[in-house]
Every structure is written in structure tokens, then in C-alpha cells.
Amino acid sequence: MKNNELKTFFDKLMTVLAKMDNKTDVFNFLRDLLSEKEILEFSNRFKVAKMLEKNISYKKIEAETWVSSTTIARISKFLNWENKGYKNAISILKSVSDKHHTGHHS
Q1: DSSP string, 55-94
Q2: d(CA 14, CA 29)
Q3: What is the CATH number of the domain that holds 71?
Q4: Which of 31, 45, 73, 88 is most buried, judging by how many CB atoms fall within 10 Å of its CB?
Q5: Which tens digit of pLDDT belongs to each residue from 40-49?
Q6: Average confidence score pLDDT of the chain
Q7: CA angle 52, 93, 75 (to 5 degrees)
Q8: Which of 104, 33, 46 is nearest to 72 (CA)?
Q9: Could you give the CA distance from residue 68 to residue 47 in angstroms, rounded to a whole number?
């Protein structure tokens, strides 16, 4: 399926997530929507992306996350060459973390 087809299919969900104002609402919605296993898988994939961004080896990532080398390679591909979704998410997380550590809250 092409990106524009996926976007159309996913549009209402993206709209809802973009309009939620706090982490509790997002968590509650995702907890209702996803199984515990799916939440853990998504969280682990994001952890892998952050580890790849820090140039941690596949072997160490596999040992720490139990994610297969095939999935790590796919995450690496998207991290470096595709839509930049992981890079954007990591940048947002870093921005929020930097603001928190410097005492600025918005």
C-alpha cells in the first residue's frame, strides 16, 4: 500500500492523536486501541531507533531489546532513508527532554 493510501486509511486516527492535549488521554486511547503486546512492540521499536541514532551495534540492540536483526535493519532503513518519522520523533523527544532539563516548561 502506498503512503497516500495509508494516510487516507489512518486519517481519523492521526487527527485524534494530534488533537489530544495530554499524555494521559493519549495513553488511555492507545491502551484501548492496542493490545499490551502491541504497545510493548511499538515502544521497543522506538527504543531501537534511539539506540541506532546513538550508533549502538545491532548485536547489543538485539541483546537488550530482543528485537530481531531483520526488524532492526528495517528500523534503520526508515531512520535513515525514508519518511524521517523516527528522526522527527527522536528530535521531538530530545527537545522536550532538553526543555525539562533546563527548567523551561511550555
Answers
A1: T--HHHHHHHH---HHHHHHHHHHHHHS--HHHHHHHHHH
A2: 12
A3: 1.10.1270.10
A4: 45
A5: 999 999 999 9
A6: 89
A7: 30
A8: 46
A9: 13
pLDDT at 4 over 70: yes
The C-alpha atoms of residue 38 and residue 57 are separated, in whole angstroms, by 24
Are 21 and 64 members of one domain?
no
Greatest C-alpha distance within the chain: 44
CB atoms under 10 Å from CB of 72, counted, come to: 21
Q: Return the closest-CA partner of residue 42 out of 17, 15, 9, 11.
A: 17
> What pTM was estimated for this model as a whole?
0.79
**What size, in residues, is the chain?**
106
Range of 7's domain?
A: 1-33
Read off the C-alpha cell for 77: 532503513
Q: Is the CB of residue 48 less than 8 Å from the CB of residue 57?
A: no
